[in-house]
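Audit log entry. Action: structure prediction of a protein-small molecule complex. Ligand: S-adenosylmethionine. The ligand was supplied as SMILES and no pocket hint was given, so placement is left entirely to the predictor. Protonation state taken as written. Sequence taken verbatim from the request; no trimming, no tag removal. Recorded inputs:
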Amino acid sequence: MSDFKNQANILYTKGQFKDAKELYIKGIEEIKIGDKELSSADKELVSVLYCNLAVTNIQLKEYTQALNDATLSIEYNNQNAKSYQRAGDALIHLQLYREAKEMYLHAIRHVKDENSLQIANNSLQNSKMKLFYEPILQGTPKFYENIEIRYLDTVKEKSLFTKRDVKKGDILFMDTPFIHRISPDSMKRLGNLICHFCMKFIAAESIVYCKGPCKSTQYCSDHCRNESEKTVHTSRSCVDPNDKQSALVQYRNMVENLSTGTTLLLAESIYSMISHKLITRQSKNCNLALGTITHLKRGPLMAQQPSYNGNNLSDLQKQYQPLLELLKKTYYPTDPKDLENKLLMDEMNKLFSVDFYDNILGMINFNSTSTVVKSPTKTNSNNSSKNDSWGIGLFPIFSCMNHSCLPNVDITNEIEDGVNSVKMVLKAKKNLLEGTEILHSYCDEKLPKKSRQSILSQYGFKCSCSKCSSGLIASTRLKQC
Ligand SMILES: C[S@@+](CC[C@H](N)C(=O)[O-])C[C@H]1O[C@@H](n2cnc3c(N)ncnc32)[C@H](O)[C@@H]1O
């Protein structure tokens, strides 16, 4: 019987999946013939054959059949880690991510070698990512129908891939931010023209104002006001900008002239969201609260600074203390019932630690994108930039794109005729086949390799794209000659 298995395995490795499938089925039938009682060795072999049949059916895109085979494989040997792995893989294709996650947890429990453990761990992460991101992708199908998100490994983590062939110049996907902040400069110049939630330029007659003490926060619609009040512009972040005693006004004044002002303001918005979620018990802990907003890569910003020597992280982070005190005065709970709640207080203390703040800034640094919103009212194209507003945003799907010095996408804000709200539009730079990793460049890819690598080191990785490694190959060859 292992002959059937060996021959089928050879056909499988040659990509002859239909023929391999036939042989796996024949092998199973031969062992099970006559409904005889199977020995434990036979059961193990049947389990392996069903498991291999499952992966063959996955190759043939017969996912329901593959799940059936993997389930039978588990029935014949419930210690077979690979059967759980295959069941999880079939479930991923069937878009049953929660069930897939359970299967991968079983695979991890039964796995016996390091390599399979790594595969199962990566698959588990993949199912978790799918659980978080699929609702976003399916929420606006016309934005995201060409792409999917996959978790690759512990180095690259998530990445975007094409789900179908896409022609050069076509829109790959569009993205709107889950959190965005306008720069202090644009705010001063254009604050009375822009919706403070969706950042759209608005006509004076359709402005809706916040009813709280800030008086100046304005929106283009009741919808934007309601959404903003539920997330960033909560009762705690609504303050009179002239109230010099307000800790939040002090924070905003302190950061507005810094080169990192917009980043620090975006961090404030994230703090507003997280503390609101904790206080209103929408989330049990900081990480969950952050996870409901974003699953973006984080790491301490200070660890990316030239002054970091490997041992002085907490010393470097201390400089955040004055800013954090102001955020704490604004967003820390005041209700006695909250103050008595130990779990909540533990989370609040974590939220207002310099380490958490540094990690939020690191997350912004790794993932944020500068944004432009063009005013529809500009009259003279030469001074159009004066009327455009800029800021930074965290875009859920855009932020999952990894780097290559040979990017295959063009990034633009415009769809057809100008932009009037914050949106990223990604177009294919060349024809892309289904299953291609979508990559953009985090730096000017025309710079020399050394400069590119120095910029990229801020992101905490070494680029190994073909442009970076081709230099290596050339120099190795030269040495060999
Ligand atoms: C904007 S995020 C991209 C999405 C990220 N992979 C994730 O899982 O959230 C930037 C981070 O992705 C990783 N990354 C991006 N491009 C990479 C590459 N070519 N090689 C290794 N890691 C990369 C780095 O950790 C970087 O800080």
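Audit: result stored. Confidence is low (pLDDT under 50) at residues 473-481. The first strand starts at residue 147 and ends at 151.
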